[in-house]
């Protein structure tokens, strides 16, 4: 803007009156600062009255686009130094107080002392500097506990002290951990899996042994594998083989039974699923004893290839199960109620 023709206060007043609806914007800060300095010198700001100073302030505010506070700040600087010069410098920004060496030293300290808590490590750093005069701990001696944990989360620290927790086992929520109480009613099964041995790392057939707790009625079947594909059809068939309604299904904590597919099958049939309690080996003792007295006695311990599972299952259903339930005597408990 060329304002050389504005030389008096009256011209300033006329300019403000005629440009009340006009807005100005400076081209650069350096140019604007230089223009304001020139106006103050040209009109002799120091010797002007209060009213005239107000007109000059309004004039500079109007043309520069700065706020009234900023104009007064620049005028104050001019009155103090006689010049208005912009201090051109980049901001310093945030400087790092703790270096990479400090983080590496913290990692070594944690390793030596076994990953103590933040307050304990902070105290160790303080003693290393103040008591033992170790210059490496000079900066770490004044670190806060919260920032110590920030350094532990840094990439440099994790590269040195990478630590991975092992996967923690989680108890399955499928089934209830308790011993079933049939109260003398048939329909509460005890179920277990028996493996027919390995041969050079090759698995043999598996037996699914289901025994009723009260009547000792037993259904034994064989499968190639204990995966859901082979196990679910056999369990459905086993349940239909019993001559009474099945009310309970108790097993150990094996994943072949404690899974969503088996739980869904039993839930559809309104059968209660329970599983053995921890460190209670007697919870499933009935079927465990049947594994030895029936399965191992009649089928032995020798390896039977998995491909013969359908043929073995046919033998069990047509011959062994009828013999066990109709021709082979066995002991069973009698329930007596005290008077």
TrEMBL record:
GO BP terms: DNA integration
InterPro entries hit by this protein: Integrase_cat-core, RNaseH-like_sf, RNaseH_sf
Integrase catalytic domain span: 178-339
Top-level division of the source organism's lineage: Bacteria
SUPFAM superfamilies on file: Ribonuclease H-like
GO MF annotations, alphabetized: nucleic acid binding
Protein name per its UniProtKB record: Integrase core domain-containing protein
């Amino acid at each position: 803007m060329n304002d050389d023709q504005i030389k008096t206060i009256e011209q300033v007043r006329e300019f403000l009156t005629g440009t009340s609806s006009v807005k100005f914007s400076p081209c650069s800060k350096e140019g604007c600062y230089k223009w304001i300095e020139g106006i103050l010198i040209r009109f002799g700001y120091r010797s002007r009255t209060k009213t005239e100073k107000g007109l000059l302030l309004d004039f500079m505010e109007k043309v520069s686009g700065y706020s009234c506070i900023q104009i007064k700040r620049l005028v104050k600087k001019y009155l103090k130094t006689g010049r208005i010069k912009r201090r051109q410098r980049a901001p310093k920004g945030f400087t790092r107080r703790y270096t990479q060496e400090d983080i590496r030293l913290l990692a070594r300290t944690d390793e030596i002392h076994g990953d103590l808590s933040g307050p304990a490590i902070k105290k160790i750093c303080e003693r290393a500097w103040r008591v033992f005069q170790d210059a490496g701990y000079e900066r770490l001696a004044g670190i806060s506990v919260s920032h110590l944990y920030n350094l532990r989360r840094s990439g440099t620290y994790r590269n040195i002290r990478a630590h991975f927790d092992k996967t923690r086992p989680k108890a399955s929520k499928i089934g209830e951990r308790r011993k079933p109480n049939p109260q003398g009613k048939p329909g509460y099964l005890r179920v277990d899996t028996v493996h027919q041995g390995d041969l050079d790392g090759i698995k043999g057939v598996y037996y699914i042994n289901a025994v009723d707790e009260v009547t000792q009625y037993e259904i034994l079947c064989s499968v190639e594998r204990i995966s859901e594909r082979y196990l679910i059809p056999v369990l459905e068939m086993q349940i239909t083989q019993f001559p009474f309604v099945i009310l309970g299904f108790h097993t150990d904590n094996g994943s072949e039974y404690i899974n969503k597919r088996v739980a869904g099958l039993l839930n559809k049939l309104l059968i209660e699923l329970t599983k053995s309690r921890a460190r209670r080996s007697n919870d499933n003792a009935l079927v465990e004893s049947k594994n030895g007295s029936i399965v191992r006695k009649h089928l032995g311990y020798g390896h039977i290839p998995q491909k013969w599972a359908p043929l073995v299952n046919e033998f069990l259903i047509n011959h062994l199960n009828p013999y066990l339930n109709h021709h082979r005597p066995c002991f069973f408990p009698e329930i007596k109620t005290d008077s």
